[in-house]
Automatic annotation (TrEMBL):
SMART domains: AAA. Pfam families: AAA_22 (PF13401). The chain crosses the membrane at residues 279-301. Residues 42-186 form the AAA+ ATPase domain. It comes from Shewanella jiangmenensis. Keywords: Membrane, Transmembrane, Transmembrane helix. Gene3D superfamilies: P-loop containing nucleotide triphosphate hydrolases. CDD domains: AAA (cd00009). This is AAA family ATPase. It comes from the Bacteria.
Length: 305
């Protein structure tokens, strides 16, 4: 591949959310701050939403890595679970050993006892769910009931939901208003600006081994094209950057310019194709209308003559 050609030691734009590549972008840092403050305050429910590919799973992993010891995390990456499955999964994450024959009520009691025992040892238990938009309504309700459990002073379980914007749409429904009211802290990830896109590209390249003294690998025109076509979505930025580097390597280029970026965009289904600026379209339309008007007038005048 292109690694050697550009002086890199590892792939800079892999799609896995690897915390080693984390770049402290404003929205991601703010999301982590909101999470940390909310968890310290002992809130029941916290929510982080964002479009597909904006970095939710990466932030989640960062949170799991960085939460200090009094917090004990239970992590459910795939919450497409019925209420019963959710209880089993939570029990497993809390380190409970139970017989498969116990019923749901007994399981709930065991979970409650374990949460109390952990609280007595000074632990704050945080249940973190990724892809929360896929949770069935009944499972959301089960979660809400678990966050009702509390000691005199604090909740026994805090829940952090990460999800796509569909989660907000679901929570807006009347049936889920009781849960909605408990979400006191939430954060919505926004897309990256053009300047952030440029800094993001460079950061990942330096982590991947690009010489610190080397000039920026992506020219400004390439950054602008990628920022526009990706609509500021990090996963799409990665895809476009990777393809641009492949094309640059194929052409023997040492830097990535607009040409490689445009080809990468054309080759990527989800990328927004470059559009004419609006003012240019307006001028074009006005020009066409004017010419049409002149032609009609001439014709009319000719007809009269
Ligand atoms: N701040 C960041 N620093 C470095 N890489 C990032 C950052 N934000 C996002 N990325 C990268 O963008 C890609 C998409 O991120 P991630 O998988 O976390 O998105 P997501 O919001 O969970 O997407 P989905 O909704 O599909 O689950 C990953 O490769 C991730 O490493
Ligand atoms: Mg994800």
């Amino acid at each position: 591949m292109y690694l050697q050609h550009f002086g890199l030691s590892e792939a800079p734009f892999a799609l896995t959310p690897n915390t080693g590549f984390f770049f402290a972008l404003a929205p991601h840092v703010e999301a982590l701050q909101v999470l940390q403050v909310a968890l310290q305050t002992g809130e029941g429910f916290i929510k982080v939403t964002g479009e597909v590919g904006t970095g939710k799973t990466l932030i989640l992993r960062k949170l799991l890595n960085e939460l200090p010891p009094p917090f004990r995390c239970a992590y459910l990456p795939n919450p497409c679970l019925s209420p019963a499955e959710l209880r089993w999964a939570l029990a497993l994450e809390l380190g409970l050993k139970y017989s498969a024959n116990i019923d749901q009520q007994q399981l709930t009691c065991l979970i409650q006892q374990q949460l109390l025992a952990l609280a007595a040892h000074g632990h704050s238990v945080v249940l973190v769910l990724d892809e929360a938009q896929a949770l069935p309504d009944e499972s959301l309700e089960t979660l809400r009931l678990f966050t009702n459990l509390e000691t005199e002073s604090r909740k026994l379980l805090q829940v952090v939901l990460f999800g796509q914007p569909e989660l907000d749409e679901r929570l807006a429904r009347h049936e889920l208003r009781q849960l909605r009211q408990r979400i006191t802290f939430s954060y919505r990830l926004r897309p990256l600006t053009e300047a952030e896109t440029g800094a993001y590209l460079e950061h990942r390249l330096r982590v991947a081994g690009l010489d610190v003294d080397a000039p920026a690998l992506f020219e400004r025109s390439a950054v602008a094209a990628i920022a526009r076509a990706s609509r500021g979505i990090p996963r799409l930025i990665n895809v476009l950057a990777h393809k641009s580097l492949m094309l640059g390597f194929g052409q023997g280029a040492m830097r990535i310019g607009r040409k490689q970026a445009q080809l990468a965009i054309r080759d990527t289904e989800d990328a927004a194709r470059s559009q004419w600026p609006r003012w240019l379209m307006f001028v074009g339309l006005m020009g066409t209308a004017a010419v049409f008007g002149v032609l009609v007038t001439l014709r009319f005048a000719g007809g009269l003559a």
